[in-house]
Predict the structure.
Amino acid sequence: MRKIAVAFSLFILLALSAIAQGQSAPTLRIVTDDPTLPSDLFYGDIKVKPLRLRPGTNTRITIDDSDFFVQQHYIDFLSRFPEAGGFANWMTFLNSCSAGDAECLHQNRLTTSASFFGSQEFQLKGFYAFRFYRASLARLPTYNEMVADMRSVTGATAADVNQKRAAFATNWVLRGDFIAAFPRSLSPTAFVDNIAQTAGVTLANRTQIISDLTAAGNSDAGRAVALRAIVESNEEYQKEYNPAFVFMQYVGYLRRDPEPAGYNAWLTYLNAHPTDFREMVRGFVDSTEYRNRF
């Protein structure tokens, strides 16, 4: 209660300071981007870190607590709260270290964290959306785009997710920037080849994709299927795996767009040391910026 009182007093002091300077006092705002996920609290334009306490106690919940660490990964990387079984499995893994073995726990946390990017669910959601930007627009998505797109393909069941993934592709080919880059006047061959060139890949199934698009009358629906075939090709998957891995460290852990220098440095490192993803994950999980979120 004392901590809450201190935080509340700080709000009062800030408000009085603003009034003394002839300014309107900022207001507290609750921002809810997704009703199924936690809301954010803002004082004016300043995001306020909530004080989290264990129910019925004055014990503070921090990112060092395994249960909160796991829950936050579900929210940040899968855009949902954990299911009971998965949560229990991760808790068992994190609690498998001997009491007081801080290094074991730290290593297990790195394994846990990296596993969310490598999970099938993330591949179906975040990595799927990421490749549309790279393959057809030749750019990284922004943080806001990525978060919105991940939520758009999140569903309660596998069938729901697959339906939303199909809708995502259908809507993508109707985007103004996509049509400007790949106008409807393009022939099926030109459409497929231009996207492959933009993506920087040589498609093993190029002939089949062109044939299917031709059979679909070069329609928007057919173009969506063709684009999705390119995005989901093994060539595009392999090419964009490391860029997506680095990008999602910024989106998931830091909740912001990557700065070019940092992004390129981590991508260069991961390309040079493809099996040492743990060093990159460590850099983000242990960063002051990440820990200061909580």
